[in-house]
Amino acid sequence: MTTGLNDISRDEFKLFQDYIYKNVGISLADHKITLVQGRLSKRLRALGLNSYKEYYDYMIADRTGEEEYHLISAISTNVTQFFRESSQWDFLKEQLPNILAQKADKKLRIWSAACSSGEEPYSIAIFLHANIRDFSQWDINILASDISKRVLTKAQSGVYEEKDVQGVPRNLLTSYFTARQSEAGERAYQIIDPIKKMITFRMFNLVYDSFNLFYSHFDIIFCRNVMIYFDAQTQQRLISSYHKTLIDKGLLFVGHSESLTRNKDEFKLLKPSIYQKI
Ligand SMILES: C[S@@+](CC[C@H](N)C(=O)[O-])C[C@H]1O[C@@H](n2cnc3c(N)ncnc32)[C@H](O)[C@@H]1O
């Protein structure tokens, strides 16, 4: 039984700070101490633990890795939305005929590299389905990956609440989602199967997993709103991996507050937050 949870101490916070940096690549600044406490306290209560050190030891001792998933899910920020960063979709719409014209084999490989709960890869799939006239003749696969098992489970279900689909234009909502009742009796929206089938979901840690399998594989990579959590060195290494992973002249989309200042000889800037492999 939990008698009462003390505030997280500096030393306890440091344990999580070091662990998260080493295993996820996220640099948690010192002022994030209250945020970390807030996010972990629920889990400690659920487990009936009395201190953050006890929780740390419990997580380390869990050989299944299940508790590490809980920790990562609690720490990471998963905010996302359908058709986020409208200028990038305008750019893609304008450039799509050129991109398709380069692909004689009619194969497109796209990576949503920190896909959170799926709004980003589903937006990509819907966009392509809606904008490629001879869609049925194309072989298209979107890899959607994230480090958090919790968000991937939601992404794979393809079920969204009313508030999640606010940004989806009406015509797309009608064509690509079916309305249904959620378990709680609320109105919910299910992505239709042909769109779901375009996407392969998997867990992938951008900082520590190997990119070897993907060399020269992708036409386009979306890596949006995750690099801000990494330090400069980690960002630079990740961008270099993307360089190897993209085909010649492949495109890289980042978040609007992110830039590639340290990889100038690998990518050229086409538009704010849109880069092309050199
Ligand atoms: C703010 S969301 C961005 C979602 C989406 N790309 C967008 O822009 O709307 C950041 C995502 O990055 C994931 N993430 C954090 N560190 C990661 C890592 N080392 N490897 C893979 N994904 C990571 C988080 O789990 C979270 O889902």
Summary?
The protein has 278 residues and is α/β, with parallel strands linked by helices. It contains 10 helices and 10 strands. It is globular.
Q: Can you walk me through this structure?
A:
This protein has 278 residues and is of the alpha/beta class. The chain has 2 domains: 10-75, Chemotaxis Receptor Methyltransferase Cher, domain 1 (Orthogonal Bundle); 86-158 and 192-277, 3-Layer(aba) Sandwich (Rossmann fold), CATH 3.40.50. The protein has 10 helices and 10 strands. The protein has helices at residues 10-24, 33-47, 52-61, 66-75, 86-101, 119-131, 149-157, 170-176, 193-196, 232-245, and strands spanning 107-112, 139-146, 159-161, 177-181, 187-191, 199-203, 218-223, 246-254, 267-271, 274-277. The strands form 2 sheets. Strands 6-2-1-7-8-10-9 form a 7-stranded mixed β-sheet. Strands 3-5-4 form a 3-stranded antiparallel β-sheet. Strand 4 and strand 5 form a beta hairpin. Helix 2 packs antiparallel against helix 4 (66-75). The protein is globular, with a radius of gyration of 20 Å. The site of S-adenosylmethionine (SAM) has 24 residues, from loops.
